[in-house]
Amino acid sequence: MAVKYIFVTGGVLSSLGKGITSSSIATLLQHSGFDVSILKIDPYINVDPGTMSPLEHGEVFVTCDGAETDLDIGHYERFLNKDFHKTNNFTTGQVYMSVIENERKGKYLGKTIQIVPHIVDEIKSRIKLAGEGSEFLIVELGGTVGDIEGMPYLEAMRQMKHELGSKQVISIHVTLIPLVRAAGELKTKPTQHSVQELRRIGISPQILVARCERSLDKELKRKLAMSCDVDDDSVIVAEDTESIYKCPLNFLDEGILTPIARHLELKELKPKMDNWDMLVKKIIAPKSSVTIGFVGKYLSLKESYKSLIESLIHAGANTDTKVNIKWIDSESVEENPALLYDVDSILVPGGFGERGIQGKLEAIRYAREKKIPFLGICLGMQLSLIEFARNVLGIKEADSVEFNPQSKEPIIYLIEDFIDTQGKKQLRTHTSPMGGTMRLGEYECHIKKGTKLYEAYGQKSLIKERHRHRYEANPKYRELFANNGMIISGECNGLIESIELENHPWFVAVQFHPEFTSRLQNPNPIILAFVKQTLAHKKQ
Ligand code: GLN
Q1: Glutamine amidotransferase domain spans which residues (predicted)?
Q2: Of the residues 330, 413, 468, which should be mutated to test ligand 1's pocket, given the most ligand atoms within 8 Å of the CB?
Q3: Looking at the structure, do residues 195 and 317 belong to the same domain, yes or no?
């Protein structure tokens, strides 16, 4: 079957949940038996979000092939339970970079380079590339209709429909129906204007997804359908829900598949959602509950821990447990360690920079000494090594060169040093314009038999997980660690990928980011094991 395209645009304002809408539609099609792919287009000029501040951009998601992408790619993987790649996210920066490189190479044979056709052609070819080999491609366009930077993309969508026809391309517009409290009324006018703007560009959406606080009655739905020129069954109400994972089920109840099937000339779609439904029920009404102390530094920016938060929800759904997160600001732990006293386990996530390090070290020490289940991720593992070196091995100056470049005891040091000493480049790193190199994407990890990691991963001795970091545990100290009760449970080409403590019920830290591979239907094994340990500790 030739690829069918579903374009998802947003109207009125941003943050309406286009990512969740796109993921939900993709999930319903996938569960109807189709091979579905999905693409996020970011109309900003940055080449990727890798160098953007967490203030500007929530989490930077990392794909298996090492691309730093928008966090929506994380939603796509979590909903669709499959890996996406570099090609599933692109930005205006990448589009222009390709076109300008081609121009420099003389590929356009001396023509004047313009937005139409050259930029638009580059956009179309990237969209087609993302859809290759799939039956459906959902294309989510970032931003809001009417934004200047979105124009070339809307033109590309219009052209694709013109070229491929209306059985191959449809457009869904996600919009807001605000409630004006003073009048007690839901207002459709902003949506009408937004759709008018789309039509001015030559796109008439076939389906409206209307975000609203309260349900629309039949009459209002009909009014919207009439004014926006969609069929009566094509106004899909998306009310706020208890869990994002309920959205596919809500869309199904609202009948979104009927107009999709009609426009794209598909047989009746009957997605099998039983297992999904069961997991959602466990998210919404779980049997047990636990509280994890999450010791982080961007607590006002929870979006920057998106994948980790979701991975805990997945582990909760699969153990019928509500995983409450107690957000503990790492800087406050320094002054007030009592913040840690009432939690069932402690999690120290990844992070960059020096701020809040002392508090995280305190939290790690507390978990180690009081034998509380502990999971450290990336920076969390690096700090676990430093804490152990300082407080158990007595190496007072133990540090990371990230915080102390002149450290005499660089327990954590730069990857480049490792590459140099090995004499060959065995790591996939990328040099960012900021001058640093990062270890990015999926790497193998060889697991030592009999360890907690080995048990967590179902007694597998070889796994793959994703990385995003600049520094590494220094192998020079490994003997010292191993002789004093710290087990190196995972390795990759001599690099230390995970550690655990001998005399502790469950203290595990990993250099990789397990949260990037967690999915609702397939929770990440180490996070699942951590939640199970948290539950067991609470029962004690
Ligand atoms: N800042 C550390 C590094 O660059 C850890 C990064 C992380 O936790 N993602 O190695």
Answers
A1: 302-531
A2: 468
A3: no
Instruction: Using the 3D structure, point to which of 252, 279, 306 is the last residue of a domain.
Output: 279
Which residue, 4, 93, 18, 23, is CA-closest to 310? 23
C-alpha radius of gyration, the chain, whole number? 25
Each residue's pLDDT, cut to its tens digit, for the chain (540 residues) gives 799 999 999 998 888 899 999 999 999 999 999 999 999 999 999 988 877 776 777 789 999 999 999 899 999 999 999 999 999 999 999 999 999 999 999 999 989 999 999 999 999 999 999 999 999 999 999 999 999 999 999 999 999 999 999 999 999 999 999 988 888 888 899 999 999 999 999 999 999 999 998 888 899 999 999 999 999 999 999 998 999 999 999 999 999 999 999 999 999 999 999 999 999 999 999 999 999 999 998 766 788 899 999 999 999 999 999 999 999 999 999 889 999 999 999 999 999 888 889 999 999 999 999 999 999 999 999 999 999 999 999 999 999 999 998 999 999 998 664 544 444 444 444 444 444 578 899 999 999 999 999 999 999 999 999 999 999 999 899 999 999 999 999 999 889 999 999 999 999 999 999 999 999 999 999 999 999 999 999 998
Which residue's entry shows tokens 């006002």? 300
Ligand 1 atom at shortest distance from the alpha carbon of 350: 8
Is residue 497 annotated as a catalytic residue, yes or no? no
Are 378 and 511 in contact, with CB atoms under 8 Å apart?
Answer: yes
Question: Quick check: is 465 in a domain?
Answer: no
- What CATH number does residue 529 fall under? 3.40.50.880
Residues with Cβ within 6 A of ligand 1? 350-352, 378-379, 402, 468-471
Same domain, 117 and 57: yes
Residue 378 CA: nearest ligand 1 atom is 8
> pTM to 2 decimals?
0.92
For the chain, report the end-to-end CA distance as a whole number of angstroms.
Answer: 56
Instruction: Kindly state the helix (H) or strand (E) to which residue 97 belongs, with its residue range.
Output: helix 92-104
Do 136 and 272 reside in the same domain of the chain?
yes
Instruction: Give the residue whose CA is nearest to atom 7 of ligand 1.
Output: 350
Q: Give the end of a domain, one of 279, 310, 343.
A: 279
Active site residue 469: no
In angstroms, the CA 389 to CA 398 distance is 6
Look up the domain containing 318 and give its range. 286-411+472-539
> The CATH number of the domain where 31 resides is what?
3.40.50.300
> How many domains does the chain divide into?
2
